[in-house]
Amino acid sequence: MNKKILVTYASRAGSTAEIAEAIGKTLSQSGTKVDILPMQDVKEISSYSAVVVGSAIRGSKWLPEAMEFTRTHRAELLERRVATFTVCITLAMSNGDRYRQAVSAWIEPVRAQVRPVSEGFFAGRLDFKKLPLNFDTLKLRLTVAFGIFPKDDRRNWNAIRAWAEGLPALMQ
Ligand SMILES: Cc1cc2nc3c(=O)[nH]c(=O)nc-3n(C[C@H](O)[C@H](O)[C@H](O)COP(=O)(O)O)c2cc1C
User: What is the pTM of this model?
Assistant: First the structure.
């Protein structure tokens, strides 16, 4: 069987895409063959032995295209080792650790589709220069103004790489 791993992601403002790149790079450095693709570019998963699926969070949910991906490929994902990663800003809050359980519950619908061998949860980036001005982003600006959500880039690259380093052992 081909031992190539697919790292695929859904991202709107790019921070999840860059995390997927970092995960893919870490996997390659451990000698694993990897493709890193946005979900819309994935034509098939039959040629991969395992799949890492990641999404940004919006409104306490994975992006719709990420949920669509797990539904579309459910049968094949169930036949493979799957790891998921989730990117949000809640985990960057000063008391973010208190919300880990709540954030974990957001991906219950993902667990209902696939059975992840590992789940990564990472703080992301809230950069208003990269976001359109609309009702949703105005609400976010308010949460930042009230000191609830932090803004800027809160990604912890060491935590991301450490999680990715543990994947090959789990995904064979
Ligand atoms: C419209 C919008 C809604 C969001 N909703 C949430 C949310 O409910 N909970 C959360 O923790 N983060 C939320 N975020 C933060 C994103 O998950 C975070 O900025 C992430 O890094 C975005 O990933 P991307 O750059 O790949 O799109 C939201 C961001 C936007 C722009």
Answer: 0.97
